[in-house]
Design a protein that fits this description.
Helix content: over 70%
Radius of gyration: 23 Å
Number of strands: 0
Number of helices: 4
Largest sheet: none
Oligomer: single chain
Structural class: mainly alpha
Length: 108
C-alpha cells in the first residue's frame, strides 16, 4: 500500500507525502521568520549581540555541551546511511507494486 492510495491518507484527505511536505514548508517558514527576527535584533543592538555570542561561545567551551552536540551529530550521521537505505527500499517496493500487472488488474 503506497502513500498515494486512500489507505495511506490521513483524515484530512491528503497523502502522507503531502502532509510531510506541508509540515516541512511550515517549518521552513517559521525558521525564515526566526532568522529575520534575529537579523533585525542584531541590527538594532550589535553590541548586545556580540556579548551574547561571546557568552554562548564561552559556555560551549567550558561545559560539555559541545561534546554532547558532537556526539549527537555523529550518531545522526551514522544512522543516516541505514535510514536512506530503508527509505530507498520502501520506495522501490512501492514502485514495483504500482507497476506490476497484478496491481493494475486489482484496481479495475
Amino acid at each position: 500500500m503506497t502513500s498515494q492510495h486512500s489507505v495511506g491518507r490521513n483524515g484530512g484527505g491528503e497523502t502522507l507525502e503531502d502532509g510531510i511536505r506541508s509540515v516541512l514548508r511550515r517549518a521552513q517558514g517559521n525558521l525564515s521568520e526566526q532568522i529575520h527576527h534575529c537579523e533585525e535584533s542584531v541590527r538594532q543592538s550589535p553590541a548586545n549581540s556580540i556579548v551574547i555570542a561571546g557568552l554562548a561561545g564561552y559556555f560551549l567551551h567550558i561545559l560539555p555541551i559541545g561534546a554532547l552536540i558532537t556526539g549527537v551529530l555523529r550518531l545522526l550521521t551514522a544512522l543516516l546511511r541505514p535510514a536512506m537505505f530503508l527509505y530507498a527500499g520502501a520506495k522501490l517496493i512501492d514502485l514495483v507494486r504500482t507497476s506490476s500487472p497484478s496491481a493494475k488488474t486489482d484496481a479495475h
